[in-house]
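Exercise 3.2. Students should predict the tertiary structure of the chain below and write it as structure tokens, then compare their answer with the key that follows.

Predict this chain's 3D structure.
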Amino acid sequence: MSQTGGGFTPTPSAQPLNPGEPLDPGERPLDPAERAELARLRAEVAELREHPAPRKRARIGWRGPVASLLIVLGCVLAPLSVLAVWTANQVSDTSRYVANMAPLASNPAIQGALTDKITAQITSHIPVSSLTSQAAGALSSHGLTRAGALLKSFTPSIVSAVAGFIHAQVHRYVTSPAFAHLWVRLNTVAHAHLVKALSGQGSSAISVSNGQVTLGLGPFIDVAKQRISARGLTIVDRLPPINPKFELFSAKYLVKAQTGYRLINDLKIVLPILTLLLLASGVYVARRHRRALIGAGLGLATAMLVLAAGLLIFRGIYLNAIPNSKVPADAAAALYDTLVRFIRQGLRTLLVVGLAVAGAAFITGPSVTAVRTRAAISRSFGWIRAHGDRAGLSTGPVGRWTYAHRKALRIAATTVAVLVFVFWGRPTAAVVIWIVVLLLIVLGLIELIGRPPPVQLGASATSLPAQREHEQTPEDADLKGRTG
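Answer key:
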């Protein structure tokens, strides 16, 4: 037939068949039952062409938009959860705070800035210039006018030499292990007192002075004075106690800080749980759970990339806002990078988790790529098993039991991997990668050890196409059905 407009016209090659005429010169003639079936099919086709069925309008259900909204909200709250956990750890967890601050004692830029600050505090209390002038006046009064004038002319050099000596001794102390130990101890004590003040318990180390909540930093000065005195500059022993105050914040904000402290501790728990509930609810509500899981994993990874970009942008703003006269640029950069390193560690971990979840959901899905990948892996394991059989290596009953329970074993292995990640404590991105790698190894062993039962085919009912069909893996059959 040839189609013209809305109908069909017969062509020479498609004339109505005679009752006994074959479809093709090499085929047998049609029997009456086959001719009747052919006529029925032609009538149905003609009826469908004349009265086509109306196309159903696609209905937009509520599941898709609601699932998308839940997943988007969960991805938006994910960076906020990371920041809330980090802030709560810095404010309320002394051990976490000290672990974050400890590397600063070994940073060269921080060591240089502290050396300059401590040296300036000590030299400001040593009147080298006035002492030199008094000594020069005493020499002149005893008839040693020339010696007194010479000493007075060397006053600037003496002041510089004393400052250089103090600076060298302070730098030697700041770069020593003793300073690192003292740094950790003082940060531990100071943070513990700060937590007490924020929680309303009071603190002896934190006081209110001139409307400011201040923290005393005298212990560093005292240790530096002892080391300088031991090197021969005993004049520092006669200095009064030096305890400069470090202003934390205004006293009127102490009550607000206490309220914020309690809020931060609550958000540390609420935000992560809410984020997980939103993502899980979005996947559950979605009509296609696997596709929603892929979207949730990719959305979580994207949210972590956005957080990383935000930290990088804020780093530039922070460094530009601090005058170099107060904190050197390299020291400010080292301070910022050290303080946010646990945020970066957390976002890298969640980035890897999101990619791993999305990848697992995709590779177990029905797409052509996923099916072909699984089929290739299955054929590879089958090839290894076949070579093992020829070499006399067989898993025997263990392999048959593993194959029969392979789904339960896969679920158990995945569950163990998830529990290890949850109860690890503070997993890093490297820990997540190792968990995924070990899980893949276990799943591969399950597939390799599992031995499918041999196919029993009867001789009378076996044909070559049926045998080839039985030899196909489930992945091959799925792929064949999808590719037509």
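Discussion points: The beta strands are 2-4, 7-9, 206-209, 212-216, 245-250. Confidence is low (pLDDT under 50) at residues 1-17, 457-473.
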